[in-house]
Amino acid sequence: MAVTPIRLNVTKECCADGVTIPSGYYAGTEISRASVNHPRGVKVDYQLDLINAEVSNDRVVGVGKTVTVTSLVEEGNILVEDA
Predict the structure, then answer these.
(1) What is the distance between the alpha carbons of residues 58 and 66, in angstroms, rounded to a whole number?
(2) pTM of the full predicted structure?
């Protein structure tokens, strides 16, 4: 398995794992591993790292989240760029 840091360009606001992702650039990870059930014998997944502002005890705090965005990359809503 190979884990590679990448930069993701969200071209339009979208939603993944119940989290709204505004358009813009984000840090992420490409995870690739061997698989006999996928084209070229490699399965690739993409994860996006973001910080959401949430209210806690009358304070706004940043909460880090990692969401899987493989389907959004495949649909073309998120573009993968080199880190």
Answers:
(1) 25
(2) 0.81
For residue 10, pLDDT over 90 is answered with yes
Confidence of residue 83 (pLDDT cuts 50, 70, 90): low
How far is residue 52's CA from residue 47's CA, in Å, rounded to a whole number? 15
Supply the mean pLDDT for the chain.
Answer: 90
Written as one string, the DSSP assignment of 34-79 is E-TTSGGGEEEEEEEEEEEEEEETTEEEEEEEEEE-HHHHHHTSEE
Q: Which of 81, 74, 83, 75 is nearest to 38 (CA)?
A: 74
